[in-house]
Amino acid sequence: MRSRTVLCIRKIGPSEEETLDNTSCLTHRPIEKEPCNNQSCPPQWVTLDWSECTPKCGPGFKHRIVLCKSSNLLKTFPAVQCQEESKPPVRIRCSLGRCPPPRWVTGDWGQCSAQCGLGQHMRTVQCLSYTGQASSECPETLRPPSMQQCESKCDSTPISNTEECKDVNKVAYCPLVLKFKFCSRAYFRQMCCKTCQGH
Fold it and tell me: Which positions carry the signal peptide feature in this UniProt record (predicted)?
């Protein structure tokens, strides 16, 4: 809209005039306001909020949506109708700090390899990044063991003194019993009688 001042005046001399009430003028009163610039304003770029930085650590990017809208923001136009050279950026660099280092991750221990007596059981040991991807950057000195000794309870009854001194077939690790000096224990001495003889 554009506006102007409209007054009711009367000349009282060659260069003098006075202002009167509007009712004093008998002719039609001219308008004070009228519309202007009736043509539509060109479309303009409108930006939405930035997204969070991705990934959660280390260098990354933030994104946002940029729309080509009418000047009253009611209509959305194809992007080609807005000036490409004035389009705001839709992506910027960001960082949420350094990522945590890769670490060793262990699985559960498996079953003991011996059904009876001493054996070994194993577990998985993996070096994983914070995203769960395999990595080769874990310190080897901090690697947890993937194998350790275990002992399974034997169900066999002890060998009587009248029976022949021999190793029970179920016991697969009688040499380990001897190596770790378990022959002094009555149970192992009975189960590995032959191996423990003389020790």
Answer: none
CB-based contact 117:154 (threshold 8 Å) = yes
Distance of CA 33 to the CA centre of its chain: 59
CA distance 8 to 28: 11
The per-residue pLDDT for range 118-146, each reduced to its tens digit, is: 888 899 999 999 888 999 999 999 999 99
Q: Which residue has the tokens 């479309």?
A: 43
DSSP state of 81: G
Tokens in use for 194?
Answer: 């032959």
**DSSP helix/strand/coil, 71:** coil
pLDDT tens digits for 39-87? 778 999 999 999 999 888 889 999 999 999 998 899 999 999 999 999 9
**Helix ranges restricted to H, 30-76:** none
The Cα–Cα gap between 185 and 139 comes to 40
How remote is the C-alpha of 16 from its chain's centroid?
82
**Nearest residue to 48 via CA among 95, 93, 96, 89:** 89
Q: Which single residue is written with the structure tokens 């946002």?
A: 64
Integer Cα distance of 79 and 119 in angstroms: 71
Residue 101, number of CB atoms within 10 A of its CB: 11
Q: Which two tokens stand for residue 91?
A: 């992506």
* Helix runs in the chain, H state only: 174-179, 186-191, 193-196
